């Protein structure tokens, strides 16, 4: 009877699998030795449906992210070694796969000769498969008509589109990398006043992060963080990937005309920015419109 108080309304906030996985694993990690029950996790994660939440919890246990405390009734959950790794970065498999693909494609695209050889090799392979019968050839109505190679042509066009998309991603990475200041070979030693100011800034930001833990970030978060703010990128559809970047007001992208100004407060809330990782270097923010869905801020 107690479950009747749990909301099952449709249309409420739902999370992608990796996002929900990360929320559950991080919450179990936060509980430490006080291993939580399914209901305690459900309330803390704020999922919209208890039955679907239980299914997700059982899958995480089945796939080796969670285990149950022996002899616990109701079951209490704890992290496995795999779960600890994915609590730090829920998207770790996708990130590794994307990095591997980008490195492979980049190496091909940067070598014109190798790129040409790969395309010619692909064409020769497909034609050979058709001629030898190892690949199904298009049906030819009469011997006087040319073979219908539309399937082969469509496949090659699809590969070409993929390559162009990856080229666009690489170009974006180059532009984004240009905004990152290079470390000086011989950094100047900070004065006591500069070191004190830096320590105070880090302490202030850490207290700010603690306050916003488990909450969506609003405009006040960025105002108090200072120096960095979400900006709308020109020629990008709002909510699409790369349509928003976190940058300073002195970033060169502004003078180049690549930005449309700061996101208004309501748009920031709509982006659903939230902190997914905190470490010695800074924080990682995930949200709609960011490159690859997330961005890093240094203390």
Note the beta-strand portion. Answer: 5-15%
Largest sheet: 3 strands, antiparallel
Radius of gyration: 25 Å
Low-pLDDT parts are: 1-16, 137-145
SSE string: HHHEEHHHHHHEEHEHEEE
Polypeptide structure, described:
With 299 residues, this protein is mainly alpha-helical. It has eleven helices and eight strands. The strands form three sheets. A three-stranded antiparallel sheet has the order 4-3-5. β1 and β2 form a beta hairpin.
What is the topology?
Elements: H1 17-31, H2 38-45, H3 50-62, E1 66-68, E2 77-79, H4 81-88, H5 92-109, H6 112-132, H7 150-178, H8 192-211, H9 219-225, E3 229-233, E4 244-247, H10 252-255, E5 259-262, H11 265-271, E6 274-278, E7 282-286, E8 294-298
Summarize the structure in short.
This protein is mainly α and 299 residues long.
What features would you highlight for this structure?
mainly alpha, 11 helices, 299 residues, 3-stranded antiparallel beta sheet, Arc Repressor Mutant, subunit A, disordered N terminus
């Amino acid at each position: 009877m107690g479950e009747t108080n749990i909301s099952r309304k449709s249309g409420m906030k739902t999370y992608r699998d990796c996002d929900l996985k990360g929320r559950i694993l991080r919450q179990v990690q936060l509980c430490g030795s006080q291993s939580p029950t399914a209901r305690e996790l459900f309330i803390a994660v704020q999922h919209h449906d208890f039955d679907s939440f239980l299914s997700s919890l059982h899958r995480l246990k089945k796939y080796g992210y969670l285990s149950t405390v022996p002899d616990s009734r109701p079951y209490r959950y704890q992290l496995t070694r795999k779960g600890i790794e994915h609590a730090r970065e829920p998207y770790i498999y996708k990130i590794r796969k994307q990095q591997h693909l980008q490195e492979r494609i980049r190496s091909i695209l940067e070598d014109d000769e190798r790129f040409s050889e790969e395309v010619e090799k692909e064409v020769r392979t497909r034609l050979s498969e058709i001629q030898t019968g190892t690949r199904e050839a298009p049906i030819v109505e009469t011997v006087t008509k040319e073979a219908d190679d539309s399937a082969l042509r469509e496949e090659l066009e699809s590969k070409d589109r993929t390559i162009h998309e990856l080229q666009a991603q690489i170009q974006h990475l180059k532009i984004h990398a240009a905004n990152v200041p290079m470390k000086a070979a011989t950094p100047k030693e900070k004065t006591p006043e500069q070191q004190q100011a830096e320590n105070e800034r880090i302490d202030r930001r850490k207290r700010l992060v603690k306050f916003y833990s488990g909450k969506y970030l609003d405009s006040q978060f960025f105002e108090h963080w200072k120096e960095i703010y979400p900006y709308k990128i020109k020629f990008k559809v709002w909510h699409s990937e790369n349509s928003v970047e976190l940058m300073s007001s002195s970033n060169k992208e502004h003078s180049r005309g690549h930005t449309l100004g700061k996101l208004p407060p309501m748009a920031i809330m709509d982006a659903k920015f939230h902190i997914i990782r905190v470490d010695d270097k800074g924080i990682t923010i995930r949200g709609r419109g960011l490159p690859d869905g997330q961005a890093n801020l240094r203390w």
